[in-house]
Write a structure and sequence with these properties.
about 350 residues; alpha+beta; Rossmann fold; OB fold (Dihydrolipoamide Acetyltransferase, E2P); six-stranded mixed sheet; five-stranded antiparallel sheet; 8 helices; about 30% strand; elongated; binds adenosine-5'-triphosphate; binds magnesium ion
Length: about 350
């Protein structure tokens, strides 16, 4: 196990800065997921930890030892990539042994390590097969086996599941998580899939355009996003946002159509501010006729739940209904915003207006 300390790290490709001073403290044995949109710098950061990319400024330390100038092979880390290129002419066992043979580890030790990794990953019956004779998930496990036999202090994963189909991805997600529980090794895992991040991470780092937006446990990010970006990125279906002006006397939010939507109480000093009101789809519920008026635009049943796109005073919102309802497009619908579940973000900066729920008694 090892800690990884990233301090004010910057990266420029030529004159172009892509990482703008990032600080992340990763603890011993922690499973940290870096998440963010395409091009935000996730792989670059991971490659800098691995030593595959040099660091323009700042430091990266593994177990308090600055590794900025250490060769990748001297960092005691193992990386699993998205395209986990196995050697096609080698068997599973040979693929897993290869790095150890290069390192001149004796044959008995290699055999023992490969057997142990194969047992952990359920690869024992497949050791004599070639990669072409394996399924996608099995190949992915061999790629992880190659990393495990090296007994690294830190595992780095760069979107290891993105080549797999949806069902296999869910299964492998659980496998990697349980692998982490058994080995206890520090893991830094990159994905742009926020569900993967939510389900696997001890802590999530949300990156955007080379900057850290927020670091926290999955539920901290979900319940208390510090800004509009994190609020919109974490959660599926995504949080609804309604832009408008907060009215004096706490009457609500005046939206583009001129209507005022009651959003519940907010501090009096917020009156007059331009904001975005955020509410998650599961926090919009069906009311018995005495709620807010809306019109149904689209109904999307998923089986376990129904996503309903509604129009409220010209604003489009998605409601997630967990019980069966019979409604169709064009129907009138009465809804309520669940008490205390609203979020307010400044329209310009996108920052959360208050860290206590802005609409605590809604
Ligand atoms: N070798 C390079 N030379 C110049 N620019 C690069 C290089 N590698 C990456 N970049 C740029 O750096 C930025 C960050 O790239 P990076 O690969 O880290 O993104 P990412 O978050 O991993 O994205 P994705 O989710 O698409 O994999 C991007 O704007 C990319 O175009
Ligand atoms: Mg990437």
């Amino acid at each position: 196990m090892a800690s990884v300390t990233i301090s004010n790290v910057r990266k420029n490709y030529g004159a172009v800065p892509v990482i703008h001073g990032v600080d992340i403290d990763i603890h011993h044995g922690e499973f940290v997921v870096l998440v963010g949109p395409s091009g935000c710098g996730k792989s670059t950061l991971l490659r800098m930890i691995a030593g595959l990319e040099n660091i323009s400024d700042g430091t990266i330390a593994i177990d308090d030892k600055v590794v900025n100038h250490l060769e990748p092979k001297d960092r005691d880390i193992a990386m699993v990539f998205q395209n986990y290129a196995l050697y096609p002419q080698m068997t599973v066992a040979q693929n897993m042994s290869f790095a150890l043979e290069l390192a001149k580890v004796d044959k008995a030790t290699i055999r023992q390590k490969v057997d142990a990794a194969a047992a952990i990953l359920g690869l024992e019956p497949l050791l004599d097969r070639k990669p072409a004779q394996l399924s996608g998930g099995q190949r992915q496990r061999v790629a992880m086996g190659r990393a495990i036999v090296r007994n690294p202090k830190v595992f780095l994963f760069d979107e290891p599941l993105s080549n797999l189909d949806a069902k296999l991805r869910v299964a492998m997600r659980a496998e990697i998580k349980s692998l982490h529980q058994r080995l206890g090794t520090t893991i830094v895992y990159v994905t742009h899939d926020q569900i993967e991040a939510m389900t696997m991470a001890d802590r999530i780092v949300v990156l955007n355009a080379g900057r850290v937006e927020q670091i926290g446990t999955p539920l901290e990010l979900y319940d208390r996003p510090v800004n509009r970006f994190v609020a919109g990125f974490i959660g599926s279906p995504a949080m609804n946002f309604v832009a408008g002006t907060l009215q004096a006397g706490q009457a609500g939010l005046k939206v583009a159509s001129g209507a005022v939507i009651p959003i519940g109480p907010y501090p009096a000093e917020f009156a007059g501010r331009q904001v975005e009101f955020g509410i998650r789809p599961e926090h919009i519920q069906v009311a018995d006729g005495n709620g807010l008026e809306a019109r149904v635009e689209v109904v999307e049943p998923t089986g376990s739940e129904t996503h309903v796109v509604i129009d409220m005073a010209g604003e489009k919102l998605v409601a997630l209904i967990r019980h069966r309802i019979s409604i169709t497009a064009g129907d009138a619908m009465s809804v309520v915003f669940e008490e205390g579940q609203g979020h307010l973000f400044d329209a310009d900066s996108g920052q959360r207006l208050t860290h206590t729920s802005a609409t605590a008694a809604m």
